[in-house]
Amino acid sequence: MPYTVHEVAKLSGVTIKTLYHYQKVGLLEPESIAENGYRYYGDQELERLQQILFYRELDLSLEKIKDALDSEPSRLRCLCEQQSLLKARQQRLAGILHTLQETIDHIRKGAVMSKEKMFAGLNREEWKNALADQNRHLQEAYGYSLPTDSIDADEMNRKANEATEFLSFMSDSLKNGVSAGDGKVLDAIQNHIRFLQKDSSLDAKAFSGQTRFFLSDDFHRNMLEAHQTGLSYYLCIAAENYAARASGAK
Question: How far apart are CA 5 and CA 29, in angstroms?
């Protein structure tokens, strides 16, 4: 079903002027242009527009967005990476807002705030260094990087500890020949997803998509393989088994 530029503007919240500009810079071409000059957009164009708007939320320039979309033919892989980046931004802002609220509360009460709490979510140098290699990869492969200007170090440590425990369990399960469909393995994935759901709406299907992205991306696959040879494949299969179990339970 073709959509007029007015219909696309209404659906997406993007102004007609912006849609024309996207066409002018080669970012989003209409599916067809009628003899009377009317522009029509199809489903593929709407999907591309959605991805453009996701990238805009990450403050990428139109040039970088075009490079990222043109160099990544897989829509799923692109969406999974966008999801990871937006979650990182969400977590960063949540940490800053928490520190801001605590500061306001202390001022209202006339209390002195500890210097450690004053900079919770703002002391980020160690995590910036830890994420440096990953950011270089993301910049080279996709034209963007994880936001590291305001990292909540305490929150990052908490998540890193949980992720380490989860990957260690999965690595040991693979090494000991435990099936990727074993109940204990699927329960571990369930607990890991529930932990992640504290800060996001991640579900079984989305987690399965993430593991497929990790399997297809050299940097992330190598990170998993460093834990245990075959772990990236094992994790992907286990996640798909869990998604099937979760779907069947509905």
Answer: 11
Pull the structure tokens for residue 124.
């980020």
CA distance 178 to 156: 30
Closest Cα to residue 15, out of 53, 48, 61, 51? 53
d(CA 140, CA 143) in angstroms, rounded, equals 6
Residues 6 or more apart from 103 whose CB is under 8 A from it? 113, 118
Q: Which two tokens stand for residue 55?
A: 């990238």
Instruction: Collect all residues with Cβ–Cβ distance below 8 Å to 176 and sequence separation of at least 6.
Output: none
Among candidates 156, 104, 107, 102, which has minimal Cα distance to 128?
156
Confidence of residue 115 (pLDDT cuts 50, 70, 90): very low
For tokens 């450690």, the residue is: 116
Please state the length of the chain: 250
User: Mind listing the pLDDT tens digit for each residue in 159-179?
Assistant: 776 887 888 899 899 989 999
Taking every pair of C-alpha atoms in the chain, what is the biggest distance, in angstroms?
A: 70
